[in-house]
Amino acid sequence: MRFSFYKVLLISVLFSFIGCKKNETKEAINTVNTTNSIQYSKSLAIHKQDGYTVVTVSNPWPDAVKNFKYILKEKNGIVPDSLKKYTQINVPLQSIVVTSTTNIPFLEMLGVEKTLIGFPHTDYISSEKTRALIDAGSVKNVGQNEKLNIEQLIELAPELIVTFGIDNNNPTLENLQKSGLKVLIQADWMEQSPLGKAEWLKLYGVLFGKEKEANQLFDNIVKEYNDAVKLVANQKPTSTVLYGSMYQDQWYVAKGSSWVAQFMKDAKGDYLWKDLEGTGSLGLSFENILDKAKTASFWIATGSFKSLAELKNANPHYSQFDAFNTKNIYTFEGKLGATGGTIFYELSPSRPDLVLKDYIKIFHPELLPNYAFTFATKLN
User: Is residue 295 a contact partner of residue 240, using CB atoms and an 8 Å limit?
Assistant: First the structure.
């Protein structure tokens, strides 16, 4: 009796293992053996199938312990059993809630902004087109990112909520899913490549059945970016660059592999912290900054400063930098929307070609004599 029990148990385990391996193999066939349409992004993969698309989001936040997989099912599409354990989203979408202003340009670029029915803290949105929808009552304010109004979202019943997480503890995400709402985690903010951030446009292409339009738009952005890089190909990075400003008692400098540093490198500016390893930023004392960057040719200041006087009022010690006295200080955060949202934060991730041209105009103005800044403002 005991032998028969263990024999049955062993056979059951073996069959379970074989079944799992078969499912894993089938799932692998459904993704690996098809072409990933993503080229630059490190956190997004899109595998198009007959009747459905597999979207994989990896590294959604620092030290993430898991990836996310979503199945975008077309009408009459048949999803294999091996993939039914993942969140299934019917496409094309007719309604959506997004929670980052960086998503707004993607919707507008594809002409689907009218599908947006909710956004947290709508004052952050700068786009005139979407602000008109907010003013008309078509886009509801659904709370704050940290505390979304779940009751209101249930009432709105969007077909999808696109949001993001900052760490492995996401109670809001869990509550949304428990309420029966479909949620997709977006990780564009983790991308360090300018073109990698912009390529998330392709996600919205598959969500709204506009893959062709998304690919064409992105290909044009890539062309414009690469053409700008070629424009400065023969230039020497002779202009030293200081970046940032004081925040409380720290000055945060962008690390050498960050999104910001990449722009300055591609624009042929000599960023003084280009050799600082890693992504993100590092907090330093004012004394450390002054010691290294006192004679910097240019200063890209963070913050929505409007003038040199306003900058000096924020910290009188700023006047010790040569760039202050030569009036070579620029900010990318000075242009605001009608309700105070920062245009750069909203639009720049989707239009890195325009950001790069702004930097080139700062460092090598003779190469773009007729170009007007999109984001940058010179402080006078």
Answer: yes
